[in-house]
Specification:
It is built from 8 helices and 18 strands. It is an alpha/beta fold and 370 residues long. The protein has a 6-stranded antiparallel β-barrel. It is globular, with a radius of gyration of 22 Å.
């Protein structure tokens, strides 16, 4: 096949591209330039898609002997991923920019452009598996390496784009194996640290980034009885379940920590309370993407739900709702709880290792303790 290999400049995408070459495909490497600031550099392992990352990707392509290009997608990235990030926080929600990047950039802008140029598939260094059934239908599954599994952030791609995706690292046992393979191939990125945090907030100061973009929007921090405990500069600096950085200055009457329970941007109010008040009984999510055929009648079915990239899978009953979304209810007596779920997070349903569906959390109802 003609394969477009997305090369971020890291070790994972370099080894994924090399495996595509070994498989006999006609591979072309492309680096996505996502930052408008051409002078942006990494700070240690923070950030990605910088000038030095583009250079690392080029050197890897040279070692592999494949053509290499840089595509400037910075305007699309700013208009979709960054703009969504700002709008969601301003609305009191908690977005996942990696999910939005996969949706709008890697498996929309990149994949659609690749298809237009005659490529058969897009190869990335994500850790996930594609299982082809006997009838030819493709399923998205968790990676063999549970610690590196990225199926959660990939679920937004949907079945159509999955049909043109390749994840050569999905069956890899560990990240150490990938680094050893990179070193054996002479790839200079073999020891390069993994990127983490939000790529467009390279210094890791997310609250400062939001303050610079959204401005100061002060308001009160209240307890559930309505007592003012402190003030803040903007509700965008908080997320449901947050414990640290509340700046309240005094403990709760029982001496236990307080957590953010709700965020109300219209009144610029943050409400805090006990950890038990974070337990969630049901989750309502919209804009669902289904890999399995949904039950049009809205009947409940049992599966597992995950609301964080590396969170636990919780036993739930789920169903399709009339507006095209989904609802998930925690099964009574389940071994684990849904805890501190925020609107804007991605809800992914699993059947074992298989991804069933993805949707964006709109609302939750709190669990009632006996």
């Amino acid at each position: 096949m003609r394969v477009l290999a997305a090369m971020s400049g890291g070790v994972d995408s370099a080894v994924a591209a090399s495996r595509a070459v070994d498989a006999g495909h006609d591979v072309v490497g492309v680096h996505m330039a996502l930052s408008r600031n051409r002078d942006q550099f990494r700070t240690g392992s923070r950030g990605c898609c910088s000038i030095e990352d583009a250079g690392d990707a080029r050197r890897a392509a040279d070692v592999l002997g494949i053509p290499y290009y840089v595509w400037d997608l910075s305007e699309r990235f700013e208009e979709t991923v960054v703009a969504d990030f700002l709008a969601e926080y301003a609305a009191g929600r908690t977005p996942n920019p990696c999910v939005r990047c996969n949706e709008h950039i890697k498996f929309e802008a990149l994949a659609d452009k690749a298809l237009a140029l005659g490529f058969d598939a897009v190869c990335t260094g994500h850790y996930a598996r594609i299982v082809v059934r006997g009838d030819g239908r493709r399923e998205l599954h968790r990676a063999r390496d549970a610690a590196k599994d990225q199926s959660y952030v990939l679920a937004v791609m949907g079945p159509e784009r999955l049909s043109r995706a390749m994840f050569p690292l999905g069956d890899t046992a560990t990240k150490d194996e990938v680094r050893a393979e990179a070193a054996a191939r002479g790839l200079s990125v073999s020891a390069k640290p993994d990127s983490y945090d939000i790529c467009f907030v390279a210094d890791g100061d997310t609250r400062g980034f939001l303050r610079d973009r959204l401005g100061s929007r002060p308001g009160p921090i209240l307890d559930t009885a309505g007592e003012v405990l402190g003030t803040h500069d903007g509700t965008y600096g908080y997320t449901i379940g947050q414990r640290k950085g509340l700046a309240i200055g005094r403990p709760a009457p029982d001496g236990k920590p307080r957590y953010v329970l709700s965020i109300e941007p219209v009144t610029s109010t943050v409400v805090v309370g006990s950890v038990d008040e974070l337990d969630v009984a049901t989750v309502r999510a919209g804009s669902a993407v289904w890999f399995a055929d949904p039950d049009a009648d809205g009947d409940w079915f049992e599966c597992e739900a995950q609301v964080r990239a590396h969170g636990e899978a919780i036993s739930v009953r789920s169903r399709v709702v009339s507006d095209g979304g989904m609802e998930a209810r925690v099964i009574a007596g389940a071994a684990h709880r849904l805890h501190g779920v925020a609107a804007g997070q991605s809800l992914v349903l699993y059947d074992g290792s298989r991804v069933l569906a993805q949707a964006t959390v709109d609302a939750t109802t709190r669990a009632v303790r006996a």
